[in-house]
Amino acid sequence: MDRWISKLQQCRYLEEWEMKQLCERVRSILIEESNIQPVSSPVTICGDIHGQFWDLLELLRKGGNVPETNPQGDFVDRGFYSLETVSLLLALKARYPDRVTLLRGNHESRQITQIIDGETLCVHGGLSPDIRTLDQIRVLSRAQEIPHEGAFCDLMWSDPDDVETWAVSPRGAGWLFGASVTKEFNHVNALNLIARAHQLVQEGYKYMFDERLVTVWSAPNYCYRCGNLASILNIRDSGTRDFTVFMAAEENQHDRNMQAMRRMSGMPYFV
Question: Taking every annotated instance into account, which residue ranges of this chain make up the domain Serine/threonine specific protein phosphatases (predicted)?
């Protein structure tokens, strides 16, 4: 596994048989995990990565390389390196199954949420009018494609906004939810914070609703053109929180032409 990780960190593909073996190993780990995976601090929470491989390496450098790490979904699509990104994350999960937690995002069609120290809920998108308690999340069937509506869909697609309670989402999936909804959900479930991803924020992170909710975004210069910062959220064992903010990796500027040629040659196999 260490050899595979070393190879993947060089932005190289695994052989097809290696990739199949890796997927089977990770599958056997994920199938034993619950919809709400319990995690203890200290922990580092990461947001969307979207196939930006060199920025993933920068994220790992800033975060100290595989501490208690918890990417919150949307590992693939839009960036140049979806296969390389998800391969490295899977290899890290296989190598450090108790130290890496992978959450499902709306671009992955795994466990749905996690809870840190019993008081911080990590979810990719947001809340649902069909979900009032954490126990309702625990009993959702996640062994399916993300549906077009309902609680599972909402957890992947919903966004916080300046609305009173609930409003129709312009995304066409999930809901917009407001401060009163967040306050009530946190109170009912004895939570201090909801940490989510799913939305680009220019400064890398954004608190809302009297710091009851935070959006963490981990893809700097999103799509190689948005000029935004990225961040990871560190929760210490004392319960204190701080952010590590970082810019796009320099490697992104060095290989744009090489990427164009590489994509023209195609993948060595289909995943």
Answer: 103-108
Choosing from 50, 107, 124, 198, the catalytic residue is: 107
Closest C-alpha among 5, 46, 35, 31 to residue 232: 46
107 is annotated as an active-site residue: yes
Q: Which of 86, 80, 75, 65 shows the shortest CA–CA distance to 197?
A: 75
Tell me the two tokens of residue 167.
Answer: 């409003």
Q: Are 219 and 49 in contact (CB under 8 A)?
A: yes
Strand, coil or helix: what is 42?
coil
The number of distinct structural domains making up the chain is 1
CATH number of 168's domain: 3.60.21.10
| Parent domain of 148 | 32-265
Task: Express each pLDDT in 18-74 by its tens digit.
Answer: 999 999 999 999 889 898 989 888 889 998 888 899 999 999 888 866 645 455 544
